[in-house]
Amino acid sequence: MKQVIVARADVGMGEGKLAAQVAHASLTAYEHATEQAKREWKQGGQKKVVVKGSSERELHELQEAAKAQGLPTGLVRDAGHTQLEPGTVTALAIGPAGDDAVDRITADLPLY
Amino acid sequence: MKQVIVARADVGMGEGKLAAQVAHASLTAYEHATEQAKREWKQGGQKKVVVKGSSERELHELQEAAKAQGLPTGLVRDAGHTQLEPGTVTALAIGPAGDDAVDRITADLPLY
Questions:
Q1: Which residues of B touch A19 (CB under 8 A)?
Q2: pLDDT tens, position by position, A41-73
Q3: Quick one: angle between helices A15-32 and B15-32, nearest 10?
């Protein structure tokens, strides 16, 4: 079980901002997971991997692909109080789900 | 309502690693919150702020202070598969809780 969070590397987030957006996406996708998936993922140490996305369009496409496979997702739009324009899409979390299911969608993305 | 995540700036985590540790701490503290606190925080946009800690000892002391106030916390030790020594304490999340209650403990820490 794992969760992969795709964060946009093209919008110039600072480190702390990036971390907050990733955490937001992570929790949102987690809340959409089944109770069994939540439990199994936590028992396995809640493995998370952060990878780089390069556009808003890419994140939307990845989310559609994940939803088509029945995987939980969480897409974050920043409120824009700091650093970014309001409504900027910043991060997409996929999972927790089986490693293979998540990898089919995200395996080509570079580590952040 | 907010959650503050104190991440160690003294252990040399890369950006993606930092984000994953912050997300881990965030979810752990969230799971320790009351249902009412979870709901109120999410309705308010699940505000998160990432700040810098400078030692393992500091994170432990902040956790004790938060617990003494009845606030939910989540402390992360890295499994050490990458970048860090196994067992390294990396991040502490405090909240979700009222802004004032969290600020009493974390207001002096610099933004990450």
A1: 5, 7, 18-19, 22-23, 50, 112
A2: 999 999 999 999 999 999 999 999 999 999 999
A3: 50
Region A2-106: CATH code: 3.40.1490.10
The pTM assigned to this predicted structure is: 0.95
Distance of residue B26 Cα from the nearest chain A Cα, in angstroms? 7
Residue A27 touches chain B, beta carbons under 8 Å: yes
B9 close to A (CB below 8 A): no
Here the tokens at position A9 are 């590397």
Domain ranges of chain B: 2-106
> Closest-CA residue in chain A for B79?
A45
| Type of residue at A112 | Y
B18-45: per-residue pLDDT in tens? 999 999 999 999 999 999 999 999 999 9
